[in-house]
TrEMBL record:
Residues 1-18 form the signal peptide. One of its GO terms (molecular function) is superoxide dismutase activity. Destroys radicals which are normally produced within the cells and which are toxic to biological systems. Protect the extracellular space from toxic effect of reactive oxygen intermediates by converting superoxide radicals into hydrogen peroxide and oxygen. The keyword Oxidoreductase applies. This is Superoxide dismutase [Cu-Zn].
Length: 249
């Protein structure tokens, strides 16, 4: 759009030159003044166009710079309203998104689940409010900006298998976002005691929350720098290597 405008200006400037030039060969000094005025105007305009062009370039560079990935962290803590006999789940959920509108990636690193039964499945969702004043109970229902049934909410992360009481998972494609009007920043991640029935439970609760049971632990998603993600990536690589090594022995 701006490019078009600039070209238009240049074209208009050139046309006014050729239009006035036939008179410029005359010896009349009366024409000399308007002509030099015009030349100055054209120079001015040229400089302005150049300035706009350079400014555009600078902005494009700045945009590319701000296209650095967005990060967020969520430090999972047991719900303060948890009954004493319930498991105390702690850990981290880390998020990375390369650009607004790009897919969201996350690391889930949690421990403190009951070790038995081994392989149990736990639902994790984004809930509407980042309000932990009544523990995880005050985080409200599933975050549902488009009023769709469960499990189509942006923060329906599904089920996570727990091994020996802990869970450690990289999910490369999540529907939620850290940017835009439906950003999950400031909202809560909730870890449940039960499995998500993914809307197939045949009751109203199933298409609202997947009948995932008690809210064991939760946290509020907050923006962060890239350091936590980088550490997790490194640990991820090391754990993979350790697992490979132990499997090879
Ligand atoms: C739990 O399951 C994992 C893999 O599914 C297995 O490696 C581990 O040994 C199991 N732990 C127990 C206590 O059975
Ligand atoms: Cu939930
Ligand atoms: Zn949901």
């Amino acid at each position: 759009m701006l490019t078009l405008l600039c070209c238009g200006l240049l074209l208009a400037a050139r046309e006014s030159v050729t239009w006035i030039l036939p008179g410029s060969g005359e010896t009349s000094s009366a024409l000399a003044l308007p002509n030099s005025d015009l030349a100055e105007q054209i120079r001015d305009m040229h400089n302005k166009v150049l300035e706009i062009w350079q400014e555009l370039g600078r902005r494009r560079e700045a945009e590319a710079g701000s296209m650095e990935a967005m990060h967020a962290v969520c430090r999972v803590q047991p719900s303060s309203s948890l009954a004493a006999e319930q498991p105390r789940v702690t850990g981290w959920v880390l998020f990375r998104q390369q650009a607004p509108g790009a897919r969201l990636e996350a690391f889930f690193d949690l421990e403190g689940f009951p070790a038995q039964p081994n392989g149990s499945s736990h639902a994790i969702h984004v809930h509407q409010f980042g309000d932990l004043s009544q523990g995880c109970d005050s985080t409200g229902p599933h975050y549902n900006p488009l009023s769709v049934p469960h499990p189509q909410h942006p923060g329906d992360f599904g089920n996570f298998a727990v091994r020996d009481g802990s869970l450690w998972k990289h999910r490369p494609v999540l529907a939620a976002s850290l940017a835009g009007p439906h950003s999950i920043v400031g909202r809560a991640v909730v870890v449940h005691a039960g499995e998500d029935d993914l809307g197939r439970g045949g009751n109203q609760a199933s298409v609202e929350n997947g009948n995932a049971g008690r809210r064991l632990a939760c946290c509020v998603v907050g923006t962060s720098g890239p350091a936590a993600w980088a550490r997790q990536m490194q640990e991820h690589a090391e754990r993979k290597k350790r697992r490979r090594d132990s499997e090879c022995k």
